[in-house]
Amino acid sequence: MVQPRIRRRAFDTAAPSSTPIASPAVAPAVKLTGFVRQFGENRVIDGLDLSIAPGEFVALLGASGSGKTTLLRTLAGLDPIGDQDVTTPGARAVVFQDARLLPWKKVWRNVALGLKDKDVRARAEAALKEVGLGHRLDAWPSTLSGGESQRTALARALVREPGLLLLDEPFAALDALTRLKMHDLVLNLWSEHKPAVLLVTHDVDEAISLADRVLVLNKGKIAAEEHITLERPRAPDARFQAIRRRLLGHLGVEAPAPHEGALIAFPTGEAVQ
Ligand SMILES: Nc1ncnc2c1ncn2[C@@H]1O[C@H](COP(=O)(O)OP(=O)(O)OP(=O)(O)O)[C@@H](O)[C@H]1O
């Protein structure tokens, strides 16, 4: 396979003006200027500008087919970019919706995949302990639950000490409770290691709960941006709901007023409107 060319060059030190974490002297973890991606006649990304500060947690929302994965794949270096202005200076790691573990390798070997040092088992073990899987080092991937598989995928990403962590709907296939636990885990790992994060998600609440900044992708460009300054952990209070309504509006979805038309299920199975 021809390796995509992601330019890793010295770039201007101007920090993104709108990011809360950026300091003027710090180079961004991601910088895209006027980026275009086209499949035949389909111009999916159309002159997109994006800057992510080191350590910043950004979530990306957008309708199905709006180009979220295309953008993430570009930043991951998985797609050719031609001679375009894309800079991702540090190490990158990606976690997808499915864990993509090699079934013939034990859990720790999946995490250590591609590492070259002598102490790879120790590093894999440390990463697996961090995601709460220190007891499953020698397990086979087929014996893991969905949540455990995604934890393993997170450990595999973390062990590479990425400056940029790309998350493509990593919690979408998990049940609601496991998803909430994964949110806590990701926030803990992020505050411990502080990579820049780009999280692609369909879930507006997930985006508001986790990110410093939420972007809405529409017609190939960033159509809206919300800075989330609520303290973590974030409760779905009135300020949260106001951000939610604005983001849903940008996505073309009308948010129901609280409880309006909502079905409330009781433990008896009885439901009232
Ligand atoms: N390799 C490809 N060849 C041709 N078209 C592609 C290719 N990859 C993506 N596309 C098209 O680009 C558009 C954006 O796809 P992409 O997967 O980035 O959207 P998305 O926002 O991630 O969608 P979803 O939320 O449904 O996952 C779609 O119309 C898709 O069909």
Description:
The protein has 273 residues and is α/β, with parallel strands linked by helices. It has a domain at 30-91 and 162-272: P-loop containing nucleotide triphosphate hydrolases (Rossmann fold). It contains seven helices and eleven strands. The termini are far apart. The site of adenosine-5'-triphosphate (ATP) has 11 residues, from strand 2 and helix 1.
Features:
single chain; 273 residues; alpha/beta; Rossmann fold; 6-stranded mixed β-sheet; 3-stranded antiparallel β-sheet; 22% strand; globular; disordered N terminus; binds adenosine-5'-triphosphate; cell membrane; membrane; ABC_transporter_ATP-bind
Structural category = alpha/beta
What amount of the residues lies in strands? 15-25%
Within the CATH hierarchy, at the fold level, what is the topology of the domain at 30-91 and 162-272? Rossmann fold
Number of strands: 11
Number of helices: 7
Mean pLDDT: 85
> If strands are numbered along the chain, what order do they take across the biggest sheet?
5-6-7-3-8-9
Family: Belongs to the ABC transporter superfamily.
Keywords: ATP-binding, Cell membrane, Membrane, Nucleotide-binding, Translocase, Transport
InterPro entries: AAA+_ATPase, ABC_transporter-like_ATP-bd, ABC_transporter_ATP-bind, P-loop_NTPase
Organism: Caulobacter hibisci
